[in-house]
Specification:
With about 270 residues, this protein is of the alpha/beta class. It is about 35% helix and about 15% strand.
């Protein structure tokens, strides 16, 4: 499988012009620019708010509403499938703009419903949300449950031995686990979404992965992680606490040390 989006460096510039599309009858010379260069999600939301507020007068015209909705649709499509850390931007746009639309010329009711469903799927794995107990299976059809982990935290690592980036990052994660799992009191459930038993076992044996190795090839988990956690590519990573609350999600492995250090002060 392909490299998951959260591993791609954030460096892009989004420029939007307040220019009418051909369907608008009266052109305007105003223009605005939003530059997103490694900005935080909060900064992006503030920038978008500022632009969309400038588009409308106190009593907006039909043309202004169309221009606003044109920008809104562009933003929705921009943030629908970028890095996971920008999921909050997409959900914010849906909650604060899309869901409040009425009789839009550019965003249909069916599109609004689709965006709402996507937002609901994204928000259920935000930091602070609680996930259901996750049960997956290891060799001998033995059940491994997050509810039975003795540690303070459980790191869920979803991977595939057919994924090049998984082959690179899984050993790196295991090195971190060996060095720090007792320091930070965490376990790892490395759940492979593969159907290839031989390749899964060969990789585990080659790298001596002595943590909780589970796989879809042994038996399906109690719920489909790919669907619930809403990831398209592997690897995918989440950290939960004893109450199954998500404390970190979809981050680069370089951030792992800092995340666990910050958790010590909570």
């Amino acid at each position: 499988m392909k490299k998951i989006r959260y591993l791609i460096p954030v460096l892009f510039v989004l420029i939007v012009y307040f220019l009418p599309t051909p369907s608008f009858s009266q052109p305007t010379s105003k223009s605005y620019e939003i530059s997103f260069n490694q900005q935080t999600a909060d900064n992006m939301m503030n920038s978008i708010d500022s632009l969309l507020q400038q588009v409308l007068d106190e009593t907006p015209t039909k043309e202004q509403l169309d221009v606003r909705d044109s920008y809104l649709k562009k933003f929705i499509h921009t943030f629908m499938n970028p890095e996971a850390k920008y999921d909050t931007v997409f959900v914010y746009l849906v909650d604060n703009y899309v869901s409040k639309l009425s009789n839009s010329s550019l965003i249909s009711d069916s599109e609004i419903n689709v965006y709402k469903r996507i937002a609901d799927r994204k928000r259920r794995t935000f930091v602070g949300r609680t996930i259901p107990v996750f049960e997956s299976y290891t060799i001998g059809n033995r059940k491994i449950s997050t509810d039975e982990m003795p540690s303070k935290y459980v790191l869920l690592w979803f991977w595939d031995p057919d994924c090049d980036h998984c082959l690179e990052y899984t050993p790196a994660l295991y090195d971190f686990y060996c060095k720090y799992h007792t320091v930070y009191d965490f376990d790892v459930i490395a759940c492979s979404v593969t159907e290839d038993y031989d390749r899964w076992m060969a990789f585990i044996n080659q790298h001596h992965l002595e943590w909780f190795n589970t796989s879809y090839v042994i038996a399906p988990p109690n719920y489909d992680a790919v669907d619930f956690f809403n990831f398209n590519d592997t690897p995918a990573i989440y950290i939960i606490d004893k109450q199954h609350k998500i404390v970190a999600r979809q981050f680069h492995l370089d951030e792992l040390y800092g995340i666990f250090e910050s958790l010590q002060y909570e």
